[in-house]
Predict the 3D structure of the following.
Amino acid sequence: MHIVTFTRSTPDTAIAVLATDDGGVTWGDAATVVNPWDDYALEETIRQAKTHKGNSTVIAIGPQMHEKALRQALAMGIKNAIRVEDAALNPHDSRQWATLAAGAVAHLDEQPNLVLFGKSHIDVDSDQVTFQTAHKLGWPLITNVSQILELDNGRIRVQRRTDQAVQIVRASLPVVISVLKGINEPRFPAFIAIRKANKTSIPVYDAAALGVELPASQIEHLGYHNLPERSGGGEIIEGATVQEKVATLVQKLKEEKIL
Amino acid sequence: MTTFVYLETMGGEILPSALEALSAAQQIGEPITALVFGISADQATTTLATCGIERIILCPDESLHPFHLEAHAPLLSHLIREYQPRHVLATATANSRELLAVSALDCAKPFIADALSFAVTEDGLTITRAAYAGKVLEQVRSTSETTFITLRARAFSKPQALDNPANVTIETVEPAHIPDGLRVHVESEESANETVTLMDAAIVVSGGRGLANNPKPAPSDAEDPDVWKARDGFATLIQPLAQALNAAVGASRAAVDAGYIDYDHQVGQTGKTVTPDLYIAAGISGAVQHQAGMRNSKIIVAINRDADAPIFKLAHYGIVGDLYDVLPRLIEAVEQEDQP
């Protein structure tokens, strides 16, 4: 059994992210963390690989900043890490991203049985790379997995949650899945493991080294901007009693035509 | 030049939120073709007749109901290759986002997810979408002759009914041939018991860590008194208020992580993003992570004991007070409004 997962470095969840005047984006000198959704994918990869006495690999696609997330993944217990960087990659073009992702998976010496994604990438706010990577590989796709019920060398059986239902589904391996928060309790790596991971050298490949050709990008990123200031906000409702405050609030909501 | 609108169906009907993609298509202003898979002509045309649609492409075949990505994607891709529409739109439900992403790749065309709005220009659409978990916005443009776009639920209104709708042409097509058969098998399916889903709800009532300040004493055999108190608070105040308002129930990450309520209800960076007309935050301090999931709500009401809680900076209306005093009165007041 070989399980592959993806991760990337994103700004820490608690800090503010702002657009800059030139249309870029900044989070000051705040640290990056593992993309929050990926914590669950990394943990599940480690657990399943351990249960099935298998191998595990984590892949990041993008510039060097993503190496930090790879090292965190290694410190948690993933066995191998690789990074893919290509000067021609437009990070806003999911088709290019999926081409590199599928190329990186196909290029592995030991072909994986399972590719596991976190639910979404919070920096680009995208989950489409999961769907497109599966399609590029030509493998079945099972999203929003809340529990892996069975995994053996032939097939996978999982519980998944859609907008309206809870399903039990199965498919023959190899398969691409995305997992939800709550599927497990991600671990914190030990200090000694972090030190060891920081010394590991991580191989880097570009499209040519993976033997794939990047399609021409058809997405133009025009820039970031800040959210509009909230207007008409911030009124604290005063009143002598709770009843009075609630009555005023209900009146306001009626004026807003909400009640 | 046409706009294709994929309308997801469920239980024999078009999903109400799917229709929002029609109003986005009306905004583009090119002739609209609606794609409806898995239901019959009668059901589809009654809903769509007044929306200014030129053509409906129907595939009522049973194999397309319920939704299955491996059955829908080849059919959609086939139709896109045949008709070459300029835009392919759908509301960004879980199913539709997978479908459009896969079909876009099939057709070697770009896919832009979760549009919040767009401007129609000579060069096509300039699309505004969220990035960095909703902390900033980005603008993107496609340079292709065909572009797949999903629209964030509730970002576009329901379509306007036209006074003089043109006649609608209905075409019925055969399902795509799937040489290897379906590879993902659904063994069982159980509907979630929520009546209103968070993403579609016009009103969301959310509870946070403040729910643990329940004045009711926890029973002596409760494993964790705080968890018992908060769960009781969700059951006796948040749920009834939501029910009175026909609202969905949300929660902060703190409340979910503490075990006060299931993860399905989490609003925020690692939960769901909601844009209701009214968002009521009770006992939620308003961490950046929570704001990322709800700050685009039209009206935000905050109820919190702590006058310095960050949620009051975001809220349009705030009541400084204990939610266990405020919510019972609010439920009473809302129920009175409902009386004829």
In short: Chain B touches chain A through 85 residues (CB under 8 Å). Residues 225-245 of chain B form the longest helix (21 residues). The two ends of chain B are 50 Å apart (CA to CA).
